[in-house]
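Could you help me review a protein record that somebody else here produced? My question to you is simply how this chain folds and whether the tokens agree. Thanks in advance; the entry in question is below:
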Amino acid sequence: MTHAAEPPPGRPKAASALAEGSEPRAAGSVGASEPPPGRPKAASAPWGGSEPRAAGSVGAPYIGRFAPSPTGPLHAGSLVAALASWLDARAHGGRWLLRIEDVDTPRCVPGADRLIVQQLARCGLVPDAPPLWQSSRAAAYQTALEQLIDSGLAYPCACSRQDIAQAQAAAGITRQRGRELPYPGTCRPERGGLHGRAARAWRMHTGRFEQKWLAAPVHQARAAINDEASGAIHWHDRRLGAQQQQLSREVGDFVLKRADGLWAYQLAVVVDDAAQGITDVVRGQDLADNTPRQIALQTALGLPTPRYLHTPLVLGADGEKLSKQNGAQALDLSDPARALRAAARHLQLDADASDGSVGALLTRWTAQWQARLTA
């Protein structure tokens, strides 16, 4: 087995599973029961095409999710993502789960998680199981990191953001708007590792990943996402179509565990999607760029890859994604049907129905969404 450089003292011994006390579950295995009576049966094809399910999830009962960060109440943009994921689950006759992504604790607002659950309920969007809080999942993330370390795919890094910016500037690389600078690989084991400095974070070795998985013979189920010639990851988005990215060049060795000791989003979301059996991820288009990093982690950890659908973003007055930073206001749910209609219009659904009840609107939009799947 190939190993990374010797980890810092005190690293826990690798565990044997990604979830405490159990083997990793395949997608669809968590609570994969028949949908409750009255829900439509699963459609035969996804929105915008008829491609098969992604690796590891063929034939698995549909399980979707909405995964907000509790940095404040839901706003118009987050309701669009919640409604789209809920409708896709219902149109497939599947289950819809709620995950509170609260690993970035400095940004979390006390009580925002409970408020989000209440806001969703006011809009008729009630999950089919109790919510999962990422803050309770540290042991599972540690186990996944240990697996990557022992595979030679994760290594400790001593670089600060200033170090990275200086290294890239020296190489003539400037930061593109809205993107982080690709990590230059300063602390890679083959380049001398930490050079006597203290470890700050853990990173994914994208170069080794591309050599080990993308440039080697792959299982047929993974062939659709691998490109042996270019080292790129290819995937299909149900709305955006064919996508590709070469991680080592466009992203670099991304963070798995942060310098402040918190778990990075990329690792946490991959581990939790697998643990919850998620077969389909429906989320905002701003997260599409994260997909190849997540596919790489899924591949390296031996986890299933869900299907992906990235929905159009709600934009602020400055033309950027609507957020608290550019004036997003908390949802006004004095009239939940009105808020839902605005979200439905953004998803190009008929929002002019005369029946204004939340239940009637959701039933109508579910039928419309299901019609898209079979179009």
Summary: The chain has ten helices and ten strands.
